[in-house]
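Input (structure):
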């Protein structure tokens, strides 16, 4: 719950991100041992695998953060992302 309140919509390798792909810093962030955002972005091929309606916005956030550059997903997630992006263009 506190992650959502901080603006996080998802995480990649325990790196929490908001919908615009910005890192979300929380007390939990400082407790996690793993790859950092800069190291992750430096990896040439970063494949994201996620699907379903609930994963659409986290997929978009991970893409905007530069954490994935290839995606394996399903039609449901792809269509929800497309619908969201089309809605952003009309704002």
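Output (sequence):
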């Amino acid at each position: 719950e506190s992650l959502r309140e901080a603006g996080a919509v998802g995480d990649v390798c325990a790196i929490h991100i908001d919908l615009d792909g910005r890192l979300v810093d929380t007390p939990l962030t400082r407790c996690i041992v793993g790859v950092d955002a800069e190291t992750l972005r430096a990896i040439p091929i970063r494949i994201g695998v996620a699907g379903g309606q609930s994963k659409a916005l986290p997929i978009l956030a991970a893409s905007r953060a530069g954490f994935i550059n290839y995606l394996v997903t399903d039609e449901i997630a792809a269509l929800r992302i497309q619908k969201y992006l089309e809605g952003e263009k009309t704002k």
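Notes: The chain has a mean pLDDT of 94. The two ends are 28 Å apart (CA to CA).
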